[in-house]
Amino acid sequence: MFLRTRLALTLLLATICAAAALAPARAARQSKQKVSLILTNGKVFTADARGTLAEAVAVQGERIVAVGTSREIAARYTAARTIDLKGRLVTPGFNDAHIHFLGGGLSLLRVNLIGAQTLAEAKARVAARVKELPAGAWVTGRGWDHTLWGGQWPTKRDLDEVAPDNPVILQRVDGHVSWVNSLALQKGNVTRETRDPQGGEILRDAGGEPTGILKETAGNLVANVVPAATREEMLEALSRALAEARRYGLTSIQTNDVPSFEATPLYRELLKADKLTVRVAEWQQFDRTVEELKRERAEFASQKDEPLRLRLTALKGYVDGTLGSRTAAMLAPFADDPHNSGIPRMSPEQLTRMTVERAREGFQITFHAIGDRANRMALDAYAAADEELLSELNRALKQNRDETLRRLGLPNTPSPDLDIRETVLRQRRGEPCGAPACVEIKGLPRHRVEHAQVVAPTDFARFRDLGVIASMQPSHAISDKRWAQDRLGEYRVLGAYSWHTFMAHGVHVPFGTDWPVEPINPYLGLYAAVTRQGAEDGAPEGGWWPEERLSIEDAIRNYTAESAYASFEEKEKGQVAAGMLADLVVHSRDLLTVPPREILQTEADITVFNGRVVYERKGDK
Ligand SMILES: [Zn+2]
Asked: Structure pTM?
């Protein structure tokens, strides 16, 4: 009895003690919110405008729920998985604002001539592929750069030597010139009688025979008879491209896949299978008719994709070619080719008319423009569209004030003499808006220029005043600097690849790569933006036109927050902040403090996409 009582008492006591000991811990645990993932003990670059740093991030599902010190996050959250960053740097996932994702993937499956240092090396790579193929099969590839071989265009004969029985078409590194062999010319029916197509040129020898170099639209004469990639090839290409993206911490792409919509069903298929580990913003082709574009958009919308994973954004058009091929449209001839000022793809009148027509339908437009003339043509076209929009709003305001204010999401109180054009200009310039007409006009267009490589000095401010985005690819500058000065001369080179000047003017400058024109590697772009030096040799000392260098903080922001702005998604992603999508990358080195050369050696250790760890570098603990 006694024993039993004692035992019971002991048990009771033990229970009470255990309960007392557990109580605070349980209470604390209960008050903590359960989340799916915590990254802690790191250095979090949030990419906000003030350059805020934090230590830890809590993620629930696909969104970030909190950002703070490691202690704050530990006090408030427990996670299914916690990653100790051991001091490593975290940034938002990279967002490549200009990429050819399918083309890049396909380039991984084809003859790759990137970095071929001699004509002989290029021929050897083609010969190797010819050996793997049956006679008659097409050999396709890209990446050659004759400026590495002394600047002479290669010819069909070079290819005939290594591919006598296979048609060959090889795109230059910039994608704007095709190098073909005799059999390919024959298949495309290109002879001495063939006339140059509009916006293109067939190079001919002294006797009038095509040499095998087809510039700009002339390349289509042959490209159009090459059998299209099969569905299986394209899926394989995309899955390889996705693996590359994960490896480089790339979580969003703004992609120009030509022809548009060939890749769309494949992206959709990958999304449904939960294999699409980047957010895709696809572009449509500017030169389709308005009816076609609207139909494409309606078809796309009817699929009810998740718009934050797969969406349509801009219409992509071309104003000119490239500097490397001397097809960029210039206000004055090339310094090293005094009778040539490039090839505009259409007349200014046609460009403006088509732009106004499409902008009126609410499409975001983006133009490939390299030369100063092409950039000015793009700005003139946007100015016409802007003028139409703003005067229409002013007119509507006069005629039906309440309805128009409602449409613009404005309070009913702005001053009676509110001038929309004036207000918008102040807004774009970041000027105080001047009460009592102090309102913010939302939903304004964000037209873009891709590359914006050579810009006349007076045109930088026009980008800002028209609210036009300059979408740039820093690695182009360090690839092109070898010959850019020869092409442009001493004066114009000052306005070339001028991302710092753009930003100083208050222009939005998202960054990208143009893969497969340049490598997909975003660290190369960051390095180029902050050093303006060659990746191999670190030359020139101090950087090429060093006043255009950026801080690493600005370069990262351009690659994340600014790229999100370019696709109207800056409220959803591009910063590490509560409520934003959880796309994050953990870097192997501290980009903010390492010497610039080390940016090139930096790798993504961990890539988090949509709240999920989708990549961990082998050998990384
Ligand atoms: Zn491109």
From this structure: 0.85
